[in-house]
Amino acid sequence: MPPADRLLAATPLLDHGHPAIAALIDARGWRALPEHDRIGAAYDFVRNEIAFGYNRADDIPASRVLADGYGQCNTKGTLLMALLRALGIPCRLHGFTIHKALQRGVVPEAVYPIAPDRILHSWVEIAHEGRWVNLEGFILDRGFLKALQDRFAGEGEALCGYGAGTDCLSRPPVAWTGGDTYIQRTGIEDDLGLFDTPDAFYAAHGQTFGFLRGLLYRQAIRHWMNARVRRIRAGRVPAIPGHVHAHAQRPA
Are 121 and 177 in contact (CB under 8 A)? Predict the structure, then answer.
């Protein structure tokens, strides 16, 4: 295990000394909690009080994610890591890619064909009770996940689409109980390895949009995606063309 101080340090992205992050922790009284509860408080905050949504980029500071009030796997992970480190919980990042089919239904069909086949993904690993625990289940907020569960009730447990990648949609392992949590695991394609910080991860791996697609994403597509996320959260789950029911299956 790397030295604890390396996994507690602040960085430009893990800016846990930022006044807004310090004020949040102080207002919630999280520092006084036992370790298990400190982890749970930060985890539940990022999972449910930071809504699922798409920021302008992956490599933005934790304080920016907090100010936005929404995020996806990578940006919510950065905020969670900053909160955990501020609370004395050593943590690191595990990088992956996921297949774009996991995002189908959120990505508008008009632009789905031009989306990269592999999308940058990550989860947070924490040192807890002498072992590494994987945290990924914080990505989808409770309201968004419930809308998917309601829409696909009775249509099978496996879903890879709408931002979810799970074999147990009705009861995915997303609650903090001291063990691993997951919600996009079944969409993973490539294992990119372990990184002490998101700064190091994004220095080594960037999303391969290209200039034009990157500009379109930042200026237009992500806002379109966020509007679709809000509609899904409200119970209006769009069908995916070419499927009998809207279960989005990865291509063979």
Answer: no
Contact 222/57 with Cβ under 8 angstroms? no
Sequence-separated contacts (24+) of 242-245 with Cβ below 8 Å: 245/152, 245/155
Q: 207, 199, 205, 191: which is closest to 56 by C-alpha?
A: 207
- Contact (CB, 8 A) for 39 and 85: no
From first to last of the 252 residues of the chain, give the pLDDT tens digit. Answer: 566 689 999 999 999 999 999 999 999 999 999 999 999 999 999 999 999 999 999 999 999 999 999 999 999 999 999 999 999 999 999 999 999 999 999 998 988 888 889 999 999 999 999 999 999 999 999 999 999 999 999 999 999 999 999 999 999 999 999 999 999 999 999 999 999 999 999 999 976 666 566 677 767 788 989 999 999 999 999 988 754 333 444 444
Cβ atoms of 139 and 43 within 8 Å: the answer is no
Name the DSSP letter for residue 107: B
Q: Can you name the residues that pair with 70 across neighbouring β-strands?
A: 51
SS (H, E, C) 189-225: EEEEEEECCHHHHHHHCCCCCCHHHHHHHHHHHHHHH
pTM reported for the whole predicted model = 0.93
Give the C-alpha separation, 53 to 94, whole Å.
Answer: 21
